[in-house]
Amino acid sequence: SKEKLSSARLTEATDAFVEQFTASIDFDKRMYRQDIQGSLAHAKMLNKVGILTDEELADIERGLAQIQREIEAGEFQFSVAQEDIHMNIEARLTQLIGITGKKLHTGRSRNDQVATDIRLYLRDEIDERVLPQLKRLMEGLIEQAERYHDAIMPGFTHLQTAQPVTFGHHLLAWFEMLYRDAERLLDARRRINTSPLGSAALAGTTYPIDRHYTAELLGFERVGENSLDGVSDRDFAIEFTHAAALLMMHLSRMSEELVLWASAQFQFIDLPDRFCTGSSIMPQKKNPDVPELVRGKSGRVYGHLMSLLTLMKSQPLAYNKDNQEDKEPLFDTVDTVVNSLIAFADMVPAIRFNREAGYEAARRGFSTATDLADYLVKKGLPFRDAHEVVGQAVAYGIRHGKDLSEMSLQELQQFEPRIKADVFDVLTLEGSVAARDHFGGTAPRQVLAAAGRARERLQTLKTA
Ligand code: ARG
After folding, report:
1. What does the pLDDT read at residue 4?
2. Would you say domain 16-106 falls under CATH 3.40.50.2000?
3. Where does this polypeptide localize (predicted)?
4. Measuring from atom 2 of ligand 1, which residue has the nearest CA?
């Protein structure tokens, strides 16, 4: 095809299949905005150092603005023959403004151009979609934690009833996981925000370019130190995907609990119908599709992380065409994370916790057994002996179908005469949670205080 990126070095036209096979335009056109932004900065810099005249710069600016309008209006003719977004835009620019369009690529290579585009793209996605949705979800968790700061449910270890906790406390545990994810994303963003522009193909360029000027125009925080590293480094993409994989792991854990809690056997929560679907055969069904799907989607992000690590493994310096394979995993990671966060941020504030079901489940599981042991320690028993005594009481309770709090004082005293009437203060679920009244504990007033701190910490999460 005569429109093809031409090389006088090559004597044959590219094989038609190879042209398709090596093209990336179908997916990298998603970076058109960043590609234009990068070209504008590059052109301004070329003008500043005397390589482009004011008129040439004005033509380039006008042409690129028109191309952006064409793309956003859906009128731009993307061509596989032009291989990627960079060549497509440059070819169209030359059509629009003539010979000056061919000067834009002075002192630049697609190698530093694509590295610049991906960094700008990821920075935008973090700022415009990932972090805002993550923060919205975290806000929803704080609100729900406040609403249910005193709603009791069993806490679990080994998925067996362990000790009573509050639903609010459980939700704030989720908040902590997500808070670390936000910190990791912000940390990755610091290294994303380094300018590779001016690295050119690999060695830099013979033109008197001003890399600090383009970096400043593009809002990069620093200029990459080494041109070979500039065109070949994809650590930042791996770091982002790693943060995303951890985030998806957390969402999958939340999903698992939501699915479990929504079951008829638990009935701890009610998911609004709009986040569920029915069954095509079983008329009674209300399936928790949203958390199930998010749980499943964690797998594809793990896969993308492994793809990117493997893509970069053993690559010699500097740029290799392999790197074109970074985009699809990265883009799908962004989309998967953003969509999962949107679904969760919409759903979490609408979850209704069933206080009676949570309370009953905590009562049934001897969840205050540790409280009784602690009570006996305070009456002078060594902890190991207290553990033994309570174990006997629980075995009795199982035989007679009675929770500890349902036994009479006489029944309890057959296991240890030091038990007195004040035991019932610690055997109630309310007494049990209220007693864990320290920083990070499940006492309702601690949960409220933690929710207040969480809200403040959310405010101070900043892009830096
Ligand atoms: N489409 C390429 C990529 O995604 C752009 C850089 C191509 N550079 C090259 N020398 N072939 O990596």
Report:
1. 59
2. no
3. Cytoplasm
4. 324
Looking at residues 203-217, what average pLDDT do you find?
A: 98
Name the residue of 7, 27, 114, 311 to mutate for ligand 1: max ligand atoms within 8 A of Cβ.
114
Q: Would you call 405 helix, strand, or coil by DSSP? A: helix
Please state the three-class secondary structure of 298-336 as a single string.
HHHHHHHHHHHHHHHCCCCCCCCHHHHHHHHHHHHHHHH
Closest protein CA for atom 3 of ligand 1: 324
- Residue the block writes with tokens 């070095």: 9
Residues in the chain: 464
Task: Give residue-wise pLDDT tens across range 410-435.
Answer: 999 999 999 999 999 889 999 999 99
Question: Given this chain, do its domains 111-206+226-358 and 360-444 carry the same CATH topology?
Answer: no
Angle, helices 110-125 vs 327-347, to 10°: value is 10
Cis, peptide link before residue 361, omega less than 30° from 0: no
Expressed in angstroms, the distance from the first to the final Cα of the chain is 47
- What percentage of the chain carries pLDDT values higher than 70? 98
Pocket of ligand 1 contains residue 84 by CB under 6 Å:
yes
Q: What is the pLDDT of residue 8?
A: 86
118 contacts 330 by C-beta, under 8 angstroms: yes
318: preceding bond cis by omega (within 30 degrees): yes
Q: What is the pTM of this model?
A: 0.95
pLDDT of 462 > 90? The answer is: no
88 lines ligand 1 (CB under 6 A): no
Tokens 């449910």, residue? Answer: 153
Asked if 340 is an active-site residue, the reply is no
Instruction: Measure the CA–CA gap between 333 and 205, rounded to whole angstroms.
Output: 34
Look up 408 and say whether it is catalytic.
no
The token pair that represents 299 in the structure block: 């797998």
CATH superfamily of 360-444: Fumarase/aspartase (C-terminal domain) (1.10.40.30)
Fold of 111-206+226-358: Fumarase C; Chain A, domain 2 (1.20.200)
Mutual angle of helices 235-261 and 327-347, in 10-degree steps: 30
* Catalytic position from the list 1, 6, 279, 400: 279
Query: Which one of 158, 280, 314, 438 is the catalytic residue?
Result: 158
